[in-house]
Amino acid sequence: MEEWIFRVTAVALPAILAITLHEAAHGFVAWRLGDDTAYQLGRVTFNPLRHIDPFGTVLLPALMYFTTGFVFGWAKPVPVNFGRLNHPRRDMVWVALAGPGTNFVLALLSAILWGLVNPQHGMVEQWLRAAAEVSILVNVILMVFNLIPLPPLDGGRVAVGILPDVLAFPLARLERFGMPILLAAFFLLPMLGRQIGVDLNIMTWLMGPPVDAVIDLIQILTGNG
Description:
Layout lengths: L1 H31 L4 H4 L13 H15 L19 H29 L6 H24 L7 H9 L2 H8 L2 H22 L5 H21 L3
Helix pairs in contact: 1-3, 1-4, 1-5, 4-5, 4-6, 4-9, 5-9, 6-7
């Protein structure tokens, strides 16, 4: 039981913080740039409890971590009225980048903690080292995943904000199809590939190299390489 509690908390707590603080950052930056929609709803807070979706934030990430080693989840989306931003198209980019940027900072802080903790000093230190390792991985995966240039992901909003209209408008119209495309890439194609004996895990091909590169960068920046 103690080992189970150790493993679950070392995975769940960093994952919850990564997912919920990602959303909080969107709301905070939107508020600072002119849209108080999230603020009026009490969502401009770094209290994770205000952002947790019980299934998407807790159950699904834990289940996927223990069954596949991969983490996927979501918090309750922070509402942003892009039309109320001071400079809607430009500020949309900063609001979108706030989430992945927060994940990078959390991964960096977790790597610093990892380097400071000696797991031989006791159970608490062992837990901190394990939680820091999970936090680095989860935050980097969330950052890279959300920077995929497909709406409604943050990378898609960044692309819409910086691309010329001839490219931005067709990309923006893909938003309603974005999540079905991602779910198919995550689940349906790998399942189909297993049935026909072909590796169709597109998300691993797409995300693996940048995730490894970001983790290598963080190790260099924190002196843990």
